[in-house]
């Protein structure tokens, strides 16, 4: 089978859907493909039960559609999925599901992107020809589990946060969470709340804030220099949480908003884990040195026995496994070479959406930029 289109969008997560909506409003033809059986599969199939959007709803809207007025400030997972479904219906987006891109390369002679895809249900090969290509397959394509000596021989359960749903099945068990970002801290809280003997590995300095403080900071930084806002955010957070260095948590020297802008690392929005760390319900450890059987040894020599290890260590992009000729835009990790906000455009009609570690707000910016840039050359 062969299919020609103006724009091929790879991925029907929020980034791909947002790009499709923006193209649709500009009457630019596109095809959107998705290897899974649904849109936003990370949210539908790989998110834990208690998950909410970590930021206030005004920072988490896709282009051209707001949340309902009665929606809570922080949108729960199920409500976000409903928002996605309404978004797809509103802009009449029709992703081609079960369609996996196997290779994509630029044809210099024909001045177009030539893609080979496979229908995962029928094994039929589809060849797409497109003038423009949008990589929207996401930062979260594949689980990232670090290499740790002895991990393969661990006697208990080893899972990634993408397969975690609830702490109910871990009640009474000794569980180690590796990773102290938002997912790691929230999962630790969920485990402890369900009666698991919970420990967490805090590998590096981290900012901990409340949802109210970070909302204020993100609002102020639109009008006030980031250094001033960061100073305020840190002072307010220190007032709320105090000095946590005695509990194994120290703040980075760079402020939370600047750190996010420079590295993509988000501040942790506390849901109750800090209180449990302070009262000893959740134990904090440093980096893991090695694992033997069900015994984990940490840097400094401490050893503990665990029934399960849960990795909240993020994901990695898989774009480079299928995209050829993408070196103008992506590095060896499948992420943009250029810094935000100049990351979204490569050469020969190549674009990326949602790869800048800027969350849903960044996705909205990417999608609008891409659609407007395509429009400027589509009619040229």
From TrEMBL:
Q: Which InterPro entries match?
A: Auxin_biosynth/cation_transpt, FAD/NAD-bd_sf, Flavin_mOase
Q: Which Pfam families match?
A: Pyr_redox_3 (PF13738)
Enzyme class per UniProt? oxidoreductase
Q: Which SUPFAM superfamilies match?
A: FAD/NAD(P)-binding domain
Catalytic activity from the UniProt record: indole-3-pyruvate + NADPH + O2 + H(+) = (indol-3-yl)acetate + CO2 + NADP(+) + H2O
GO MF term set: flavin adenine dinucleotide binding; indole-3-pyruvate monooxygenase activity; NADP binding
Source domain of life is: Eukaryota
Keywords carried by this UniProt record: Oxidoreductase
The catalytic activity of this protein is classed by the Enzyme Commission as 1.14.13.168
The Swiss-Prot or TrEMBL record describes its family as follows: Belongs to the FMO family.
Which protein, by its recorded name, is this?
indole-3-pyruvate monooxygenase
């Amino acid at each position: 089978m062969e299919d020609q289109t103006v724009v091929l969008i790879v991925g029907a997560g929020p980034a791909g859907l947002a790009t499709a909506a923006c193209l649709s409003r500009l009457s630019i033809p596109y095809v959107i493909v998705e290897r899974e059986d649904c849109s936003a599969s990370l949210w539908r199939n790989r998110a834990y039960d208690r998950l909410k959007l970590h930021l206030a709803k005004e920072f988490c809207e896709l282009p051209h559609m707001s949340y309902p007025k009665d929606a809570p400030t922080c949108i729960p997972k199920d409500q976000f999925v409903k928002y996605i479904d309404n978004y797809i219906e509103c802009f009449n987006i029709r992703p081609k599901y079960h369609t996996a891109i196997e290779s994509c390369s630029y044809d210099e002679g024909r001045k177009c992107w030539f893609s080979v895809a496979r229908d995962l249900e029928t094994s039929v090969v589809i060849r797409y020809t497109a003038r423009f290509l949008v990589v929207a397959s996401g930062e979260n394509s594949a689980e990232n589990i670090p290499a740790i000596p002895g991990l393969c021989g661990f006697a208990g359960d080893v899972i990634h946060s993408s397969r975690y749903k609830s702490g109910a099945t871990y009640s009474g068990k000794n569980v180690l969470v590796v990773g102290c970002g938002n997912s790691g801290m929230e999962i630790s809280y969920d485990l402890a709340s369900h009666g698991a003997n919970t420990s967490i590995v805090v590998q590096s300095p981290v900012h901990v804030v409340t949802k109210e403080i970070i909302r204020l900071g993100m609002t102020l930084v639109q009008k006030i220099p980031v250094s001033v806002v960061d100073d305020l955010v840190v002072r307010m957070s220190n007032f709320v949480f105090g000095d946590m260095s005695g509990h194994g948590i120290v703040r980075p020297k760079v402020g939370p908003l600047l750190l996010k802008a420079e590295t993509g690392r988000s501040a942790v929005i506390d849901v109750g884990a800090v209180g449990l760390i302070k009262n000893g319900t959740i134990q904090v450890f440093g980096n893991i040195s090695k694992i033997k059987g069900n015994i984990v040894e940490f840097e400094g020599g401490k050893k503990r026995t665990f029934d399960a290890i849960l990795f909240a260590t993020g994901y990695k992009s898989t774009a480079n496994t299928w995209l050829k000729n993408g070196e103008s835009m992506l590095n060896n990790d499948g992420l943009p070479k250029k810094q935000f906000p100049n990351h979204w455009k490569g050469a020969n009609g190549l674009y990326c959406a949602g790869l800048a570690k800027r969350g849903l707000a960044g996705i909205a910016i990417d999608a609008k930029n891409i659609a407007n840039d395509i429009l400027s050359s589509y009619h040229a």
